[in-house]
Amino acid sequence: MIELLLILIFLINFSFLCTLIRDLQAHRNQILLEPATTWLLPFSSFIIFFLSTFGIFDFAISTALYAKLKWVPIKKIPGTLNTRCVIPLAVMALSYISAIKVDFKTS
User: Fold this and answer.
1) Backbone angle region of 57, left / alpha / beta, with phi > 0 → left and psi within -120 to 50 → alpha
2) How confident is the model at residue 3 (pLDDT cuts 50, 70, 90)?
3) CA angle 43, 32, 90 (to 5 degrees)
4) Cα-atom radius of gyration of the chain, to the nearest Å?
5) Are the C-beta atoms of residues 6 and 95 closer than 8 Å to each other?
6) pLDDT score for 99
7) If you ran DSSP here, which 8-state letter would residue 38 be given?
8) Do residues 48 and 61 touch, judged by C-beta distance below 8 A?
9) How does pLDDT run across 45-84, given as a tens digit for each residue?
């Protein structure tokens, strides 16, 4: 049953990734106009998700960081956070569920 859960997590997130890539290609010009610095984003995301594994809520850190650095307008923060978290959280779910013995009722 756990294998089925892992497969479903992978398939749903792969579908999301394909949709995201198509959308990014379609809106490339709009993306390039965003004010975020691309060299700092990977480092901040690593730190945010590292802290998330210890229970510090990544949406709280990201909201404060994105608003303070003016990377994303306030109106776009909810959608940005939801989109940004899908793939990393799927990787965390796959690694935790496969590395830690979990019963189906608690997964």
Assistant:
1) beta
2) confident
3) 45
4) 16
5) no
6) 84
7) T
8) yes
9) 889 888 888 888 888 888 988 888 888 888 989 998 888 8
DSSP letters for 40-99? THHHHHHHHHHHHTTT--HHHHHHHHHHHHT-S-GGGHHHHHHHHHHHHHHHHHHHHHHH
Of 56, 76, 57, the closest CA to residue 66 belongs to 76
Long-range contacts of 33-42 (CB under 8 A, 24+ apart): 34/71, 34/72, 35/70, 35/71, 36/69, 36/71, 36/72, 37/71
* pLDDT confidence bin for 26, thresholds 50/70/90: very high
Q: What is the pLDDT of residue 106?
A: 66
CA 1 to chain CA centroid, nearest Å: 25
CB 57 within 8 A of CB 50: no
Global confidence as pTM? 0.70
Structural domain total, the chain? 1
Supply the range of the domain harboring residue 86. Answer: 2-106
